[in-house]
Amino acid sequence: MDDIERYDLAVIGAGPAGYTAAEKSAKAGYKVVIFEKSDHMGGVCLNEGCIPTKTLLYSAKVLDQARQASKYGIAISGEIQPDMKKIVSRKKKVVRKLVLGIKQRLENAGVKIIKGEAYIKSSHHVVCDDSCYYTENIFVCTGSEPIIPPISGINEVPYWTHREPLECTDIPKSIAILGGGVIGMEFASYFNSMGSEVTVIEMMDEVLPMFDETLVVQLREMYAKRGVRFLLSTKVTAVAMQGDRILVTTAPTQEEKIVVDKLLVSTGRRKITTGFGLENLKLDTDDKGNILQNKRMQTSSHHIYLCGDANGRSMLAHTAIREAEVAVQTLLGRTDEIIYQCIPSVLYANPELAGVGYTEQELKARGIPYILKELPMAYAGRFVAENEGVNGTCRILINPNDQRIWGVHILGNPASEIIIQAANAIRLKRKANEWKRSIFPHPTVGEIIKECL
Amino acid sequence: MDDIERYDLAVIGAGPAGYTAAEKSAKAGYKVVIFEKSDHMGGVCLNEGCIPTKTLLYSAKVLDQARQASKYGIAISGEIQPDMKKIVSRKKKVVRKLVLGIKQRLENAGVKIIKGEAYIKSSHHVVCDDSCYYTENIFVCTGSEPIIPPISGINEVPYWTHREPLECTDIPKSIAILGGGVIGMEFASYFNSMGSEVTVIEMMDEVLPMFDETLVVQLREMYAKRGVRFLLSTKVTAVAMQGDRILVTTAPTQEEKIVVDKLLVSTGRRKITTGFGLENLKLDTDDKGNILQNKRMQTSSHHIYLCGDANGRSMLAHTAIREAEVAVQTLLGRTDEIIYQCIPSVLYANPELAGVGYTEQELKARGIPYILKELPMAYAGRFVAENEGVNGTCRILINPNDQRIWGVHILGNPASEIIIQAANAIRLKRKANEWKRSIFPHPTVGEIIKECL
Fold first, then answer.
1. Up-side HSE of residue B303: CA atoms within 13 Å toward CB?
2. Dihedral sign of CA atoms B209, B210, B212, B215 in order
């Protein structure tokens, strides 16, 4: 083992956490190796998550907008149709471009990229294929995978997870979406735009539990108006083939059977922390078996870090990126820590829904006092100029004691971009009155925050 | 004069400065009267500026997008045509809605609205029609008007200013735009989308002097590719009718004659501070005759305030709004002041161009050291997903001594919304490294700032 390759850092998994950590630490002068078992850099986010869905959703938005063009005085005389082959091939092109970009960035930073499945042999040794690598530090960035609920018959039907619809060039006439989280609702929006009959089945009494409830109800009603059907407080008890189609049996509040062409299962994701030797390290865990870590992303073995979906904290790409940054700063001996209170959540449907900080239902549940400021989006002139026959809402929750911002929640395009300033405001502990004094360019949709504060 | 109406505040002009000041001071308990000589609340911004142009530009964007739809996999089989009557009538509807909204807000706040031309009789008396009003304070919010350069023949041709194109339902085959500032460039974009042959004639060697030069060159080249013709360093020496059309003679660098259907003059705006009695007050002025005022918007007579375009400082609606806020805070005896260093500038073309803080050319001219961070917009995955065959650039200028942000400049949609966070960062004196630690939702176009920092 004299010729064993020695690294300062081994990163396992090249998703947002892994590639961010690898690039940044290598740029800081560390000798870094990254292991990726799939063929492509970028992880779920880039290959079968955030980026491909947003690319497809943008095609859907272009389609929606062409259909609505006459409202803005643009006359289209002929047919407007999605060309599914082109939509999917464009999506592939976008993903390919960005995957190559990540690869190039890692190579430029001097990161050694190993395609293969890594196995942690000891706290300083990682094995891949027939090679062993010595490393001072290990970043575990192994991501997450879909949870498939133990529904009767589920293994007998060709269900979809988040992966298959990305390749779908033959739009199903009907689709049932099991689970009304972000993934389920984004695909509901997409397939609805593309012309499918969409049914969203959600066990809880409302979809999108992580978002502001008032806005979720508004969004769900918009979806319903567009033709999406919702079965809330509804459990799927069994699925089975019925000819070429899938029979979905639900219970108990709305017991019924529906027959659909496709079934998409989006009932949540589970972190991946086993199967690659991590358990060998005997890291400290809580009583549920979750690996403990500090705010600097270190586990009980301080040279072993856990970033991204693999720690199960927030399961968002931007959290992963930030966790990786914190881990690298820690590695470099600098002070940094993750603040989970200012992580924005975004639903990239049309219209977008975005929020950051506490929701009203969280504040109520915890008995925390708050002031609610709320305005329709149409208070912003730019929103009126760009949204014919659509409204939305901006809701800001403020701490009455010190005027700091508890949360900001926006339904309306482009909420995803506008929420960035809100995340910053919460991070910086800005007070409502001070934030309101900022100059917002006029006219912008983002001005709604100034109006609302 | 015993029955003279007495007010705490008289506001002259109901544009963004005036309506903001009137509403806010009335809400704070002041007795407020506002005078507006035109038929509508909202001033130039709402009636013939920001809002109508953005509404028209959005129709143009919908048109551009429909034409580009096939790039995103959306097949449109027939003709795509602007329906100009509908575009203009929709614009009117949007303006009407927002004008009524302003009126309602003022009424709800208890502001007395007087339609008529106000005249300042003394420092506490304002006359309108046959009535005289006593007021403790006066806010002068009289706005600005287009400058028409003394070109030979200008009064013999039916030239347009910013007003007439807003009503144009018969798209001219050709149009010459005199002046490459924001107004000129936005109309150039609009008429180009609508199918006109557009020529922009600019006396300086570059258009859009207030924006980052590098980005302006990129934008101008995009315009040129779309078919807009630019005559830079070119002066119009004469205009004359030639049949139904207009003959424009230019000199000296590109001496030529062009014949166009329409001529739009957008060579700048001039503050309005005379003609309504302000000169009676003998306020202190600088040696150029500009009325002096402090950072709290007060003139040398502290109860006379000057806000918005009328003070000639920045000529932007959002500056006017902020100045009005500062003036109201001052009125209320609170501490506030205007900071002109963090006023964003936006060009609402397609793509948008936005900037805040110093430009590189300003830093160079002043000999101020800076670090330049620059990335193509395609570094942001969301931008790639939503912009086929288009790129853009993000440029951040940083003070090398303390890592604070000198300026942020972005070319690419939706720059107008993204620049908000940059304006906030400059206002808060954030350091690059600290700002970079914020969590930006992924994927957003706004992430380009995190990447760039």
1. 14
2. negative
Chain centroid to Cα A318, Å, comes to 8
Q: Considering the entire predicted model, what is its pTM?
A: 0.95
Please, what is the Cα angle at A323 between A363 and A165, to 5 degrees? 85
Classified as helix, coil or strand, B395 is strand
B446–chain A Cβ distance below 8 A for any pair: yes
Of B82, B84, B420, the CB nearest to A446: B420
Return residues 268-327 of B near A (CB < 8 Å).
316-319, 321-322, 325
Q: Which residues lie below 8 Å from residue B420, measured CB to CB, with a gap of 6+?
A: A418, A421, A438, A440, A441, A444, A446, B344
The pLDDT of residue B253: 66
Kindly state the helix (H) or strand (E) to which residue B263 belongs, with its residue range: strand B262-265
CATH superfamily of A154-267: FAD/NAD(P)-binding domain (3.50.50.60)
Residue B357 gets the label, from left (phi > 0), alpha (psi -120 to 50) or beta, of: left
Q: Locate the chain B residue with the closest alpha carbon to A89.
A: B73
Contact status of A427 with chain B (Cβ, < 8 Å): yes
The yes-or-no answer to whether A5-146+270-340 and A154-267 have a common fold is yes
Q: What is the domain partition of chain B in residue ranges? A: 5-146+270-340, 154-267, 351-452
Asked about B442 being catalytic, the answer comes back as: yes
Instruction: Using a CB–CB cutoff of 8 Å, tell me whether B414 touches chain A.
Output: yes
Cβ proximity of A141 and A41 under 8 Å: no
Nearest C-alpha of chain A: how many angstroms from B358? 16
Q: Which DSSP string corresponds to B10-65?
A: EEE--SHHHHHHHHHHHHTT--EEEEESSSSTTHHHHHHSHHHHHHHHHHHHHHHH
Of the residues A48, A53, A62, the best mutation for testing chain B's interface (the one with the most B CB atoms within 10 Å of its CB) is A62
Output the CA–CA distances (angstroms, integers) from residue A314 to A21, A236, A344, B188, in the order listed. 18, 26, 10, 46
Task: Report d(CA B375, CA B448) in Å as an integer.
Answer: 8
What confidence category does residue A253 fall into, taking pLDDT thresholds of 50, 70 and 90? Answer: low
Residue type, B40: H
CATH number attached to the domain at A351-452: 3.30.390.30
Complex ipTM > 0.90: yes
Render pLDDT for A263-303 as a digit per residue (tens, 0 to 9).
999 999 999 999 999 998 999 999 999 999 999 999 999 99
What is the mean pLDDT of the segment spanning A5-28?
A: 97
- Residues in chain B closer than 8 A to A418 (CB atoms): 417, 420
In chain A, residues with a C-beta closer than 8 Å to the C-beta of B435 are: 424
First-to-final CA distance of chain A? 64
Give pLDDT, residue A254: 61
Give Cα A191 distance to the centre of its chain: 18
Average pLDDT estimate for A413-431: 96
Residue spans of chain B under pLDDT 70:
1-2, 253-254
Give the N- to C-terminal CA distance of chain B in Å, as an integer: 64
Distance CA A64, CA A223 (A): 13
Q: Give the whole-number percent of chain A exceeding pLDDT 90.
A: 96
Report how far residue A262's alpha carbon sits from residue B261's, in angstroms, rounded to the nearest whole number.
58
B424 closest CB neighbour out of A87, A384, A424: A424
Question: Which residue on chain B is closest to A102 by alpha carbon?
Answer: B379
Q: What is the DSSP string of B145-178?
A: EE-----BTGGGS--B-SSGGGG--S--SEEEEE
CATH number of B5-146+270-340: 3.50.50.60
